[in-house]
């Protein structure tokens, strides 16, 4: 499939724009015949890039192809990272609970490479940086999958590796949160308030890795 990857990518980019539509409507929106689209869908489904069903839905393998292409484009255009500015704020005390959950902690160790301190550093973003927070919401990031413990269901969390004061950390974009969009939560292998002598209201810069 390696030689055909550019062709697969082209189809997936086109399908991303019509995801959720039935094939008949998707074909019309794309300006191609139904027969041509059905033929392409059969091949993509057989390869695991598109899911079976009455509507266009890109499978996880297809999403990985799109993510790989996005990373390549971002690297080409020099968009490997951004800097967020804000100030330290007191949290709601929920970070310690969630980070300590086995379902999250194990994935953080596997995907981010460190055991998180049981708590988060809350950073309120400046108006200029808030624009980039919305940008992060649109990027794939590193998925920390949600799970159920039999009593309660916990949502997905998207993470981006970052640095705060030279310390390797991760910024979390949380699917379910009580915070507004101006607040980001940072996890690290240490308590950042102690390691960097931070207090409420102190300015802080977060160097976020996008690739």
From TrEMBL:
Pathway: Cofactor biosynthesis; FMN biosynthesis; FMN from riboflavin (CTP route): step 1/1. Binds 1 Mg(2+) ion per subunit. Its cofactor is Mg(2+). GO terms for biological process: FMN biosynthetic process; riboflavin biosynthetic process. Signal peptide: none annotated. Keywords: Flavoprotein, FMN, Kinase, Magnesium, Metal-binding, Nucleotide-binding, Transferase. It catalyses: riboflavin + CTP = CDP + FMN + H(+). The keyword Kinase applies. Residues 88-208 form the Riboflavin kinase domain. It comes from the Archaea. Its EC number is 2.7.1.161. FMN binds at residues 177, 185. Mg(2+) binds at residues 120, 122. Residues 9-52 form the HTH marR-type domain. Pfam families: CTP-dep_RFKase, MarR_2. Belongs to the archaeal riboflavin kinase family. This is Riboflavin kinase. It comes from Thermoproteus uzoniensis (strain 768-20).
């Amino acid at each position: 499939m390696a030689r055909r990857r550019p062709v697969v990518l082209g189809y997936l980019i086109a399908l991303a724009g019509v995801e959720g539509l039935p094939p008949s409507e998707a074909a019309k929106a794309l300006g191609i015949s139904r027969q041509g689209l059905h033929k392409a869908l059969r091949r993509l489904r057989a390869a695991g890039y598109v899911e079976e069903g009455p509507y266009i839905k890109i499978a996880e393998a297809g999403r990985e192809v799109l993510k790989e292409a996005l990373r390549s484009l971002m690297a080409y255009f020099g968009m490997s990272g951004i800097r967020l500015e804000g100030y330290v704020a007191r949290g709601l005390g929920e970070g310690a609970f969630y980070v300590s959950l086995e379902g999250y902690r194990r994935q953080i160790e596997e995907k981010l490479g460190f055991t998180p301190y049981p708590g988060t550093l809350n950073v309120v973003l400046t108006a200029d940086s808030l624009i980039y927070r919305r940008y992060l919401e649109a990027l794939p990031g590193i998925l920390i999958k949600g799970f159920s413990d039999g009593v309660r269901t916990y949502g997905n969390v998207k993470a981006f590796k970052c640095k705060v004061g030279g310390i390797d950390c991760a910024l979390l974009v949380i699917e379910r949160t009580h915070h507004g969009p101006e607040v980001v939560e940072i996890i690290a292998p240490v308590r950042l308030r102690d390691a960097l002598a931070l207090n409420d209201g102190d300015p802080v810069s977060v160097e976020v890795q996008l690739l």
